[in-house]
Specification:
The longest helix is centred in the middle third of the chain and has 23 residues. This protein has 2 domains: about 80 residues, Nitrogenase molybdenum iron protein domain (Rossmann fold, 3-Layer(aba) Sandwich), CATH 3.40.50.1980; about 140 residues, Rossmann fold (3-Layer(aba) Sandwich). It is an alpha/beta fold. Helix 5 runs parallel beside helix 10 and helix 7 crosses helix 8. The strands form 2 sheets. A 4-stranded parallel β-sheet has the order 2-1-3-4, with helices on both faces. Strands 6-5-7-8 form a 4-stranded parallel β-sheet, with helices on both faces.
């Protein structure tokens, strides 16, 4: 089987399904597994793939994500006779279903079921653990200039909410709402998670947003964006990572040592 993946998290999933050797094309943003992706041809970026080159590679299947990739590229590939698998999970349940679907499409149903079951088991454990704790009001920040967060229709929200988080921007209409530091301060989140992607937040950015919003610096934390936004075989670890972030803040609210 010849496979092209146009989404970094799906490239990682292909390897974990045991089909990495069948990848003939990936994007320049596909970085995991780091010791394997270097040898695979890069066919552009997620938003500007080299459609003609992908067609020349004659893949049996191209994996795409509705948010990472453009619908016009998917249509161009399909019109060229290329079979495409397009997904966009927003929850852990949808992610488990996607993994099963891709596992089946790659003739690795057993591996797909194994990863999907791991997602579901961990999700249920975290859900039960969160039921006995106070909710933690959080903001998940993805961009600077302008400052941007996420609403409830996003994968990062789903992981943090599953763990007992309450998104202060969850009810916004836009999936990625803009906000001002003053507005963030008025919403008084217990925790502000500034992610490492797509904007590479660092400690100095947490210092900046704390100062501008007037919120205590200890409420700000740099969070791993790959664990909180990559859906697929990274999701089991992402569920546990999100649970750790929220549980630590819940402990702080009870007066425990974080």
């Amino acid at each position: 089987m010849r496979i092209v993946s146009l989404c970094p998290s799906l490239t990682e999933l292909v390897f974990d399904l045991g089909r990495g050797a069948d990848l003939v094309g990936i994007t320049k943003f596909c970085v995991h597994p780091a010791d394997r992706v270097g040898a695979i041809e890069k066919v552009g970026g997620t938003k500007n793939p080299k459609v003609e080159r992908i067609v020349e590679l004659a893949p049996d299947l191209v994996l795409l994500n509705r948010e990472e990739n453009r619908i016009e590229d998917a249509r161009a590939l399909e019109q060229a006779g290329v079979r495409c698998h397009v997904s966009m999970p927003r929850t852990v349940e949808e992610t488990a279903a996607m993994v099963r679907s891709i596992g089946k499409a790659l003739d690795r149903p057993e591996e797909g079921r194994r990863i999907a079951a791991d997602i579901e088991v961990r999700a249920e454990r975290v859900r039960l653990e969160a039921a006995g704790r106070p909710r933690v009001r959080f903001a998940y920040v993805i961009w600077r200039e302008p400052w941007m967060s996420v609403n409830r229709d996003t994968f990062a929200h789903a992981l943090l909410a599953l763990a007992g988080g309450e998104n202060v921007f969850g009810a916004e209409v836009e999936r990625y709402p803009e906000f001002t530091p003053a507005e963030l301060g008025r919403r008084t989140p217990d925790a502000v998670f500034q992610c490492t992607e797509p904007f590479p937040f660092r400690a100095e950015h947490a210092d900046e947003l704390a100062r501008l919003s007037g919120l205590p610096r200890e409420r700000f934390e740099i969070a791993d964006g790959e664990y909180l936004s990559w859906h697929g075989s990274r999701t089991p670890a992402g569920i546990d990572y999100a649970a750790g972030l929220i549980a630590q803040r819940a402990g702080t609210r009870r007066g425990a040592v974080p």
